[in-house]
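[job 4471] stage=fold_predict status=RUNNING
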Amino acid sequence: MIKRSGLLAALITGGLALAAAPTAFASFSGSGTISGSLISSGTNAGDYNYTIDLTNTGTQSINFLWFAWTPGQDYLYSTPVAASAPSGWSTNILPAGGGSGASIQFDSSTNSIAAGGSLDFSFITADTPSMVYSQSSHWFPGKPVGTSVLYNAGEFSSPSDTIVITPTPEPAALGLLAVGGVLGLTLASRARRRQLV
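[job 4471] inference complete, writing structure tokens
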């Protein structure tokens, strides 16, 4: 037979566990894509303007993006000329040098990316798309240049998530994929018809 004091203790413990459950099930994650275009005129003509579209795929807010970086490694080939961020965010470009590449910090204390939300960040660099989109950094072979770290409450805070920001397919590449898919379906349909005859 369960004593009343034991039952009361079990109920209190269970209630505390349920109260803590939302925190236990909270997740911190994100995903991102990057696209770039050649700047044809003005001060930065000949450089490339890149836009990072960062989406919060977790349940906790994102307040810090450290692009092209993991602890001790910076992946951009050269130092960006400029970086910009949405209102409420600041930028900090860490230059290439000393046997390492460059990276960019985007930090906010007032405009976090809420669950399901997304924001765009941009930077200008002389690095070509093949360099920025590379799956193997010049400085750290085998590491994609887009490898980046997200933080919930600021640099080196917990929780964090390491992601790879991937290039957005070019419209021409998407067109080729669509044509290839239609061609494949047509050939498969013809082959089936021949088998039935």
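[job 4471] summary: The chain is about 25% helix and 30% strand.
[job 4471] exit 0
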